[in-house]
Specification:
Layout (H helix, E strand, L loop, with lengths): L2 H35 L2 E7 L14 E7 L17 E3 L14 E3 L8 E8 H5 L8 E8 L9 E14 L3 E2 L13 E9 L1 H13 L2 E6 L14 E2 L6
Antiparallel strand pairs: 1-2, 3-4, 5-9, 6-7, 6-10, 7-9, 7-11, 8-9
């Protein structure tokens, strides 16, 4: 083997050694990255804004993968966790879904029924009434005969709110009453049979139906004489 051949062999060996060294360096970098990042897990990203107190479904979220070490302890990693739950706050598009963003939807108790009615958004809801809240339901009626005073009645006391729907624009001319609402929100209540009938009657025949939020821990007792109000009581 002449000197030129020996140099070629040496260069070839050096090339092989450099290739092995480069390969070992890549493996070292990958191993270092894996040691810092760790295994990946599933999480769920909000596709588009979700309004508070909205019932949740899987199509509102996108499954993504990210290192488990970067996931918070309350991150939702199983989409089935949203079943029967609602958003407790505004969910922004692109944010990761967390357990503290959702709550279980209030459920019916034995002997109760669900009833939903449209409530004037301006005078009856004002963004303060949420699922699980307790409200008094008021209805105002015109006098039963000519010259009789109008009345305001507490139709149902301490009604429990199950769900608050989306703001809905009412169709023009839908209602012939004066000062009709232009926007309303469907509110679902959990009521016994008699109270359900009272609410249905009020929605059909009352001039207006309004809600009054009851503060937690307050005295909710309403005396029989206080359930009906007429203006002449203040005279």
């Amino acid at each position: 083997m002449n000197s030129r051949q020996r140099r070629g062999v040496i260069l070839l060996l050096l090339s092989v050694l450099c290739a092995f060294a480069a390969f070992a360096g890549v493996l070292s970098v990958i191993s270092d990255v894996n040691s810092k990042v760790g295994p990946e897990g599933s999480a769920y990203k909000v596709k588009s804004d979700v309004a508070p107190y909205t019932s949740l479904s899987a199509r509102q979220f996108e499954k993504i993968s990210m290192p488990k070490r970067w996931l918070s302890d309350n991150a939702v990693t199983d989409i089935s966790e949203i079943n029967g739950k609602i958003a407790v706050t505004q969910l922004r598009a692109g944010s990761l879904l967390q357990n503290d963003m959702i709550v279980k939807r209030p459920a019916l108790q034995a002997g109760q029924q669900e009833i939903a009615i449209m409530i004037d958004a301006a005078t009856g809801v004002a963004g303060k009434i949420t699922p699980g809240a307790t409200v008094n339901i008021y209805a105002t009626f015109a006098g039963e005969r000519q010259g009789a005073p109008a009345q305001s009645k507490v139709i149902v006391a301490n009604a429990r709110v199950l769900d608050v729907g989306k703001l809905t624009a009412l169709e023009p001319g839908r209602d012939s009453k004066a000062n009709q609402a232009t926007e309303a929100v469907p509110i679902t209540f959990a009521l016994n049979t008699l109270d359900t009938q009272r609410v249905a009657y009020a929605e059909s025949f009352a001039e207006h139906v309004r809600l009054a939020l009851v503060a937690p821990g307050s005295d909710t007792t309403i005396r029989p004489g206080d359930r009906t109000y007429t203006l002449d009581k203040d005279k």
